[in-house]
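For reproducibility, we list the full input for the magnesium ion complex.
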Amino acid sequence: MAERKVAGTYVFEAKNPVERTQAAKAAAKLLRQGKLVAFPTETVYGLGANAWDKAAVEKIFFAKGRPADNPLIVHISQPEQLEALASPIPDAAWLLAEHFWPGPLTLVLPKKPQVPDVVTGGLATVAVRLPKHPVALALLEAADLPVAAPSANLSGRPSPTTAEHVLTDLAGRIDAVVDGGPCEVGLESTVLNLSGETLQILRPGAVTAEEISEVLGEKCAVAHWQEESGAKPPSPGLKYLHYAPQAPLYLLRGDPKSIVKALQERQQKWEAAGKKTGLLVSAETAPFFASEYLLVLGSRTDPAGMAARLYDALRRFDHMGVDVILAEGYPATGVGLALMNRLQKAAGGRVIDLE
Ligand code: TXA
Ligand code: MG
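The corresponding predicted structure, in tokenized form, follows.
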């Protein structure tokens, strides 16, 4: 099998079906021994541990520097495995599983007592998803276990969409990473709460509220939670700063023409002050800028493509060592809602609305 070691962390190549089977077997063995293995999913790379093994799951929090009250998502390879983790399971969960699994939808359900508290951050609910990536599925099947896995980044850093991103953050801190190439979706799954009175999306993703509503014939709300409100967040993960590049990021919202003008003005101002100014723009507005620190996310007509490239772009700005990042905003509809949600988090409040 093609494998190498980076700072004590095994890297198992899984870029074709033969490698995939071998890598899944080797990585599954590590998981069964209580070790930590990062693996690709269609959304982002996850950092996995045997969900039944409390000590193994505790190591995830340590490796990532993750606050203990931020619960993990449990990954399964067969919908029926849900029954070992959650109870009661409403019909809506099975209907959604049928429509969206395998895929980027996480369901929050009342947990069974057998699920260790460390997995759920002490909550009475558990988050479960069945990923679509062939490497993730091969690994979950070979391990024959539910696998608790948050995104495989250091806490507060952008989620990893390649094995290199995982190694940048976690080499030497985890036992292995399975390299299945870049992730297709590039943003974390939609987290949907099915344990409350009403349907609520706790974190927007590639599966949209409209799609969920259509399947269930019921209204699906998206949680809006303001840090400043002092209220308890609907999901513990919401209260932590996420997806942050090293330089402060300013997000400009408005129509493309106003954005171009405002970005140009700010670029001039920052550059005149001697600041290395990163620009994160669309293919449509890119021709209006000249800068060696310009990254193009993709066409405005393809928000899914832009979403897939976002985290890599944020990490590239870190490599460039820019002092400040100016980012173009997009319409928050469809997948654009998830894209803007992550850009807003990366901005950490530095959002500028243009008329
Ligand atoms: O796409 C994804 O979901 C990726 C891949 C690896 O599957 N995983 C991921 O995990 O993004 P993580 O830990 O970075 O994000 C999990 C989110 C957090 O915001 C957490 O607070 C929320 O899900 N969550 C987990 N369990 C929950 C629960 N019982 N109730 C409410 N929110 C929960
Ligand atoms: Mg995460």
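The domain at 249-353 is CATH 3.40.50.11030 (Rossmann fold). The chain has a mean pLDDT of 94. Both points were considered when choosing residues for closer inspection.
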